Amino acid sequence: MSSAEKTGQPTDPQPRRRLSRQDRHRQLLDVAWQIARDEGTEALTLGRLSERAGVTKPVVYDHFETRPGLLAALYREFDARQTTVMDAALAASQPSLADRATVIATSYVDCVLLQGREIPGVIAALAGSPELERIKREYEAAFIEKCRIALSPFTGAGTIAAAGLWAMLGAAEALSYAAASGDITASEAKKELFETIVAMVARSMGGGTHPDHLRNTAGLASR
């Protein structure tokens, strides 16, 4: 007879499993997203994260060190997911302006909607410090360069101006956040962003208007 049986104490046949560092990091990020979703980004502190995750503060500080470090980790994860989705869609798309513009518009809006309305709060918080703002600008520049490469084959001898690409990114953010907030539908956001992209490329060609074969493109609004 075991000592536990002798004393009448209950046994614990399955002791709590200690998470690996990678699994713990994944758990903390998942809980952080949940806090941002349920309570807002302002409530997302390392102390609150330790409470919701059921771990001690030193565990959380060991993974993120500071609140800006946590916000940066969330943004990096969002950007990595967006990059993966967009790269796969571009690789599978047809080499046409309509297809490439559809991929960019759809991928951007869908990734924001997949993450939910908490991502605008995280991105807004990134502007709170020079370091976070630098991280955001680096990822924005990489996204813009990816779009420039994908769309340049359709400009003829022209080039896409940097101002146009930054304007496209601003439209992508605003439309996606409006869709996440329910102010417009996802289909409306994608269609408007598609039109913005095609118009930008048309200006780069010197025409200033949409090519006739791209007018009233069907199917995008239903995706």
Automatic annotation (TrEMBL):
<dbReference type="Pfam" id="PF00440">
    <property type="entry name" value="TetR_N"/>
</dbReference>
<dbReference type="InterPro" id="IPR001647">
    <property type="entry name" value="HTH_TetR"/>
</dbReference>
<feature type="region of interest" description="Disordered">
    <location>
        <begin position="1"/>
        <end position="23"/>
    </location>
</feature>
<feature type="domain" description="HTH tetR-type">
    <location>
        <begin position="22"/>
        <end position="82"/>
    </location>
</feature>
<dbReference type="InterPro" id="IPR050109">
    <property type="entry name" value="HTH-type_TetR-like_transc_reg"/>
</dbReference>
<keyword id="KW-0238">DNA-binding</keyword>
<dbReference type="InterPro" id="IPR009057">
    <property type="entry name" value="Homeodomain-like_sf"/>
</dbReference>
<protein>
    <submittedName>
        <fullName>TetR/AcrR family transcriptional regulator</fullName>
    </submittedName>
</protein>
<feature type="DNA-binding region" description="H-T-H motif">
    <location>
        <begin position="45"/>
        <end position="64"/>
    </location>
</feature>
<feature type="compositionally biased region" description="Polar residues">
    <location>
        <begin position="1"/>
        <end position="11"/>
    </location>
</feature>
